[in-house]
Amino acid sequence: MQDVLKFCPNCGQPIKPTDDFCPNCGFDLRKARLEAQSTQEPALTSPAEAPKATQSATVAASTQPAQQQVHKRRRWPWIVVGAVVVLLGAAYLGGSMYYGQNRQVAELADEMTSGDADDMAEVAIANDGTPLTESDLKPLARLTKNRLYRSTLRTMIMDKQTNGMVQVVKQGSYLLLFPKYKVKLGTANVTVKTNLDAAAFTMDGNQIQPENRSGSYTIASQLPGLYALKLSGTHEGSTKDFNREVIVPLKGQPEALTLDAATAAKTVTPTHDATSGSSTSESHDDDDDDDYDDNGVTKTNRQYPSDASKRNDNHSTDGVVGRWESGDTATFNFNSDGTYTATSNGTPTNGKWEVVYRDGNILNIKFTKDDGSSVVEPFALDDGDLIETNLKIKWDRD
Questions:
Q1: How many whole angstroms separate alpha carbon 27 and alpha carbon 20?
Q2: Burial, 202: exposed, middle or buried (Cβ in 10 Å; 0-12, 13-18, 19+)?
Q3: Are 354 and 366 in contact (CB under 8 A)?
Q4: Residue 5 three-state SS
Q5: Shortest CA distance to 2 belongs to which of 25, 28, 36?
Q6: Where are the alpha helices (DSSP H) in 279-392?
Q7: How many CB atoms lie within 10 A of CB 116?
């Protein structure tokens, strides 16, 4: 501490900070020093410095909240942008899952195999991209009643085929972001060969005019499906007609039909009674009139081509697969896997079957039993019936 006494309070002579008594007069300097120190106030800061310190503290205190407010205001837009990005990302992810291709394709398969032409029309389009109607799709709805065709159609859609008769294609979008998928159906031509004169065609109740080239008629651009074809005409002075089921398959080309007038039924010929003003009909060959019962099995007297020795490369099973019955004692199951089961008078048999020849609705089928023995039988498909032409057995679809 700095000595506040530089001169002796008693005699005025100079003194040193280490002197306890005045070297001139002997005055006790210790007491004087204590009194001088008690009367002097401490000054930590000068009056000029005090306002500066107070001002700096005030400025610092007032500046800090303002800076914090500025930083907070600057962070808010980024927080909002981040939240929007997160929401949009979540919405897109949810939309991608809901409108994903796999989910849509599964729904397409369900609709197209529902057997309901109206449901099919909601998801099916033609080759040119135009929507197909319920009426357009009724033949396909009938075809998918068959388990084999229904399974094939589902597989083709689930495999997301992009070529062939059945394709899964992009058609429009959902919310302008997610592709919309549809089932595009192609078409094929049906060929009918006949020796009927003045042939008139009706397909599913609608009159059509196929292109005719020397008895080979082309029914153009038919969607896949099961159709009811009626063919009427004349042959050797008689009016005859055919009623056939025509399948336009999901894969490959439709089978060409060969309809020989010799196997056709005669049509009822109306004659006008001038006296009564009413119309009557001449007698005609009727399927029911040709049928008879043979020990519980239905047989027919009608004549069909029957040559079990014929072979070719046409192994189509269209119209054959399914369960058939004849009378009240015989049943036959042509299974799609190439096996068969049958009962006759309560006796079961089974084995394998294979089409070894086919020309239209005339075909030969080879049956192989479990013991290895085999036989070939000729058949004809006639107006929804299966005729075992050699044995004259008439099978009705169960």
A1: 8
A2: middle
A3: yes
A4: coil
A5: 36
A6: 287-290
A7: 15
Distance CA 30, CA 36 (A): 10
How far apart, in whole angstroms, are the C-alpha atoms of residue 96 and residue 100?
5
One-letter amino acid for residue 117 of the chain: A
State how far the alpha carbon of 204 is from the alpha carbons of 137, 142, 226, 245, 305, in Å: 12, 12, 9, 10, 27
Q: What is the pTM of this model?
A: 0.50
Which positions ≥6 away from 287 have C-beta within 8 Å? 265, 300, 302, 383, 385
21 secondary structure, DSSP code: B
Q: For residues 218 and 387, give the distance between their C-alpha atoms in angstroms, rounded to a whole number.
A: 27
pLDDT at 284 over 50: no
DSSP-derived letter for residue 133 is P
CA 238/CA 81 separation, integer angstroms: 86
Comparing 79-88, 97-106, 248-257, 370-379, the range with the smallest average pLDDT is 79-88
State the residue for tokens 């005030």. 58
- 8 Å CB contact between 312 and 298: no
DSSP-assigned beta bridge partners for residue 273 = 278
Whether residue 283 is predicted with pLDDT greater than 90 in this model: the reply is no
Q: What is the DSSP letter of 220?
A: E
- What distance in Å separates the CA atoms of residue 219 and residue 209, rounded to the nearest whole number? 8
Distance CA 279, CA 51 (A): 132
DSSP 361: T
Taking residue 357's Cβ as centre, other Cβ atoms within 10 Å add up to 20
Q: How far apart are CA 388 and CA 363, in angstroms?
A: 10
For 32-49, the DSSP string reads: HHHHHHHHSPP-SS-TTH
Q: Tokens representing 72? A: 């907070």
What's the sign of the alpha-carbon dihedral 165, 361, 202, 205? negative
pLDDT classification of 89: cutoffs 50, 70, 90: confident
Cα separation, 223 vs 124, whole angstroms: 11
Q: Residue 25: pLDDT band by 50, 70, 90 thresholds?
A: confident
- CB neighbourhood size of 21 (10 A): 13
Give the number of C-alpha atoms closer than 13 A to the C-alpha of residue 166, restricted to the C-beta side: 25
CB 96, CB 178: distance < 8 Å = yes
- β-bridge partners, 270: 281
Query: d(Cα 304, Cα 288) in Å, to the nearest integer?
Result: 16
CA 55 from chain center: how many Å?
A: 78
Name the CA radius of gyration of the chain, rounded.
Answer: 52
Which amino acid is residue 215, in one-letter code?
A: G
Q: Can you read off the two tokens belonging to residue 62?
A: 């007032």
